[in-house]
Design a protein that fits this description.
This protein is α+β, with helices and mostly antiparallel strands. The chain has helices at residues 13-21, 37-42, 59-63, 112-128, 133-140, and strands spanning 50-53, 75-78, 81-84, 93-96.
Length: 157
């Protein structure tokens, strides 16, 4: 019957469960997640200043450096802002989630500096969690805000 205002990601679950169970594991590669066991036990504290929801991209298309025909767009939450590097017109979108909790009003055009900052955080976070160069390259190509960018075709009617 309690809740904790804490930003976590699915990759944080395994380290948390292991810590709570007192289990030490030695995976072949380091875990990218962070345990939030302390926050659960004390009911206070922060774990992350941003989180990203996942996106599935076809590895073959990414390795061939092709824009996938269908993919779920990543969404980064940082503080009161929600950011996606690609919206329905092929350009980044930014939402003030305090004023717009359902992310319906794009405020990116009036907040270019915040968009740029959150895009850097997005790329850094993806690199830190093991995204390969082909994946990162897809998100570093500048988008043309007047033509909608190369991703806009996924949203045509």
């Amino acid at each position: 019957g309690q809740q904790l205002d804490l930003m976590v990601q699915p990759i944080d679950l395994l380290p948390t469960l292991c810590e709570l169970a007192g289990v030490q594991i030695s995976p072949p590669e380091p875990l990218h997640g962070r345990s939030f066991a302390r926050q659960l036990m004390t009911g206070t504290g922060a774990l992350r200043d941003h989180v990203i929801t996942g996106a599935h991209l076809n590895p073959e298309r990414v390795s061939q450096n092709q824009v996938p025909s269908r993919a779920s767009t990543p969404f980064l939450r940082s503080g009161s802002f929600g950011y996606t590097p690609i919206g329905p017109t092929g350009t980044p979108q930014l939402f003030d989630l305090t004023e717009d909790p359902f992310a319906e009003k794009d405020v990116a055009p009036a907040n270019i500096n915040i968009v740029s900052e959150l895009h850097k955080i997005f790329l850094q976070s993806m690199a830190e969690t093991g995204a390969d160069d082909a994946f990162l390259k897809l998100w570093t190509t500048p988008r043309n805000s007047t033509t909608g960018g190369s991703w806009a075709r996924d949203y045509s009617t």
